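ok so i was messing around last nite and threw this chain in just to see what happens. nothing serious, just curious
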Amino acid sequence: MPKDITRPEKIDVALSPDTKLTGDIESKGLMCLDGSIKGNIKMDGDVYIGKTGAMEGNISAREVQILGRVTGNITATGTLRMFNGATLQGDVQVGSFVAEQGAVFKGKCTMSDFSDLKG
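result:
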């Protein structure tokens, strides 16, 4: 696991590596995806896509960290962080974007000021 990533103790939504889900998820807090999803994720919080995680669909969250694979668009009011070995195919609208060497991004990036959306 990259040194910048620390898995928090409190995870609100988790999909294990052997879990496959078709459908949308909408929740609050932190979501950790180590399985696969075909659908959209809307979190009032953060999304962590682990090394074994695979996502086909759009993500809307505060912070998004990717170690696995995502095919879809991402809106992150905070930071989108891609780690070595991560792949993302889709357009992103983010507050900030960080990609390590070895991460693959194919799409368009728009950096926005989401301050008007913050309480």
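not much to say yet. The longest strand covers residues 25-33.
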